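call fold(seq) -> tokens
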Amino acid sequence: MSASGSASGSALVERALVVAAQIAPGAGAVALVREVSEAVVRWANSTLTTNGHTIERRLSVVMLVPLDGGTGAGVVTVPAPTSLAAGREGDAVLREAVAGAVQAARRGGPARDAAPLPEPSNGASGDDPAWHEGAGETSMAAFGRLAGELGASFRPDEASYGFAEHRVTTSWLGTSAGVRRRWVEPGGSVELNLKDPVTGTSVWGGEGAVDLRTVDVAALVERLRGRLPWGRRQIDLPAGRYETLLPPSAVSDLMIYLAWSMGGRPAQEGRSAFSRAGGTRVGEQLGALPLTLAGDPAAPGFPDLAYTPVLATTYSGDEVSVFDNGATTGRVEWVRDGTVNALAYPRAAAAEYGAPFAAPTDNLVLTGGEDARLEEMVASTGRGLLLTCLWYIREVDPTTLLLTGLTRDGVYLVEGGEIVGEVNNFRFNESPLDLLRRATEAGATERTLPREWKDWFTRAAMPPLRIPDYHMTSVSPGR
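ret:
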């Protein structure tokens, strides 16, 4: 849906809150408008196949309704109406959305995570100077540098496949408690595969960036092209435990799942890997390396990863609550110097367990390693495996955070500090919590693009890790 000519995001929020007060006097209300402007380019076999630009805008209404025994929460999300004229289609859409959210709240009964909506703080009131501004927008011009460098990189003796996207998300959040916030968050990524027509092997690389003009596509292609010869010697290895070098992308996919699993309530109730007799694992030393896994809206050292420090959500779960909409968020060190330091608690759960409120973070940075680059770690390896990336990651056991998945687009054998060939792919079984316990070396932290979770989480900076006994449980038939 194009948002061109639509009512402003702030006007939609304000009108939704007025309608909410009319339909359900005394209820709490949250209105969130999100507009996403997205441009994409896809190519296959060194030929452009798809490109386009879309704009989509949606309105979410959260109603917090007093009930016998507590407060119920209901949420409805609809395409944002283009008109707000009283009695016309747009106003009818708002009334239907509010009424539906009220009905859902009543049907759901009292919510366990009920809490008063946060009061405005840190400039989150109606005084936000950007509140009435319009939406940010991207265009196909975002790919100006990429298109030129990519076209120049195509060669007749190799096949290039890839996908690039750039999006600008504008959000307007308003609550009946007085919070008014507008923010604009750009983001983008480039993913690229090169395939060797002689061996059929494939190599992958990707980069994330707020501005795709900062991505050196020519350099990315050259790095991948330099790895193609590694696949011209094929080596079969059995399943087993191998010393393994995980590059930053693979580390990010594992650490993202770890962060998604750090709910305080599941840990308190004995149903997560962070549970232990009588409490949680907060304060437990994991391993010898002084690694710190943190999320921080300010993203010190990595400005490209910064995000707006305000919570906006349309669902409740163990880690987040719709009752916390509008709360100011800050830095959370999930792991500090190798020790479990914090778990995610909505405000109601935090009060229940006497823990600090901590919301899931929109970026993750793992620090505490040395300055070594991945190439230097390869050079200091006697015999081991070098992975490219992981995919099809799924949870096997939440009580140990055991994950399974597959390697992809290049697993290489290192002997005497040199790459000597490409080996078969594997299925692995590992827990990211255990990997932090067993890691013997961490290199330099760098901005990276997760391969598996890119569609949901792109703001990550990770080091390469050396794991002495990474568990490859079976051979995967694909090369």
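The longest helix spans residues 89-108.
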